[in-house]
Design a protein that fits this description.
The protein has 205 residues and is of the alpha+beta class. The chain has eight helices and four strands. The protein has two domains: 85 residues, Glutaredoxin (3-Layer(aba) Sandwich), CATH 3.40.30.10; 112 residues, Up-down Bundle (Glutathione S-transferase Yfyf (Class Pi), Chain A, domain 2). It has a four-stranded mixed β-sheet, with helices on one face. Strand 1, helix 1 and strand 2 form a beta-alpha-beta unit. Helix 1 crosses helix 6, helix 1 crosses helix 8 and helix 4 packs parallel to helix 6. The protein binds glutathione.
């Protein structure tokens, strides 16, 4: 059984999307990050960076004691390897998938998060930061669009953990002040994923 320490944010949704898509059994443990539950000692023991998502797998593939992990993309990689799903075994597609997975973890997620912060959370308007993260967000959507003009999925021929990691961040495109119509290949990819039954189950449980 997999316990998923969860809040319905882009990083949390990624893991639920994987577990539903791969049809793995799991149990949601809600962490209310607006109430500071991520600082609870029992949660910090699993996720010392005080962020969701995290997982505890009580039946890891090596048959040993439970495995706990934090960092959403490390969790996606673990689950893909455990299940044998959503990560190609073919050398090129596997590493291109991991490349886009790391791109999401190191670039797309953090930059869009700063964009969100300076547009919607910062107690005062900081025009330089608003402009910087808006331009960077547009640049990253451009990179994503060019990739999806060239390939149906981020990793290549197959839907994968790279798509699953990136999609929940695009869900908030309006909030990020990104008109999706300006990025037609992203829009097409976004709609293809949105209609997957696993996505429906996560968004409308
Ligand atoms: N790099 C981390 C980021 C996780 C993250 O930023 N989680 C946010 C919600 S989306 C969180 O738990 N924030 C609570 C806090 O920072 O105290 C990942 O990919 O898992």
């Amino acid at each position: 059984m997999i316990d998923l320490w969860y809040a319905p944010t882009p990083n949390g949704i990624k893991i639920a999307l994987f577990l539903e898509e791969a049809e793995m059994e799991y149990r949601i443990q809600r962490i209310n990050i607006s109430k500071g539950e991520q600082f609870r000692p029992d949660f910090l023991a699993i996720s010392p960076n005080n962020k969701i998502p995290a997982i505890t797998d009580s039946a890891p593939p090596d048959g040993g004691k439970p495995v706990s992990l934090f960092e959403s993309c490390a969790i996606l990689l673990y689950l893909a390897e455990k299940s044998g799903k959503l990560l190609s075994g073919e050398l090129r597609e596997r590493h291109v998938t991991l490349q886009w997975l790391f791109w999401q973890a190191a670039g797309f997620g953090p930059m869009l998060s700063q964009n969100h912060h300076f547009n919607h959370v910062a107690p005062q308007a900081v025009p330089y930061a608003i402009e910087r993260f808006q331009v960077e967000t547009q640049r990253l959507y451009g990179v994503l669009n060019r990739r999806l003009e060239a390939s149906p999925w981020l990793g290549g021929a197959h839907y994968s953990i790279a798509d699953i990691a990136t999609w929940p961040w695009v869900m908030n495109h309006a909030h990020q002040r990104i008109p999706l119509a300006d990025y037609p290949a992203v829009k097409n990819w976004f709609e293809r994923i949105r209609t997957r039954p696993a996505v429906e189950r996560v968004l409308h449980p």
